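Per-record layout

source: Graphocephala atropunctata
name: WHIM1 domain-containing protein
length: 106
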Amino acid sequence: QTHFGPLDQKDSVNVVLFFIDAMTWPDVLRAYVESDRNFDAEVLRILNTSEYPFTDVENRLKVLQFLTDQFLITNPVREDLIHEGSFLYDDHCRICHRVGDLLCCE
């Protein structure tokens, strides 16, 4: 999504995402992969040479692996994975309401 730019051009850049549906999502996916030259060229080749959802299993797995990797490197997901399993403790006692090092009152 484009955040910085002239107001009259932001909607024209994002129009592809506004009109995404069951018929257009492969083209939106192709445009996303084409948007950054650092993305995997093999994924771009798969999207350009075949109708993506109707290709063989190996190609589908490569594209899904790429999309999964892109999802996992986003900041919110990384933060959730890093903090998974850690507990957030209250810094006050729920019974006596004292703040500080929490020691059980009971």
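summary: The mean pLDDT is 81. The chain has one domain: 7-82.
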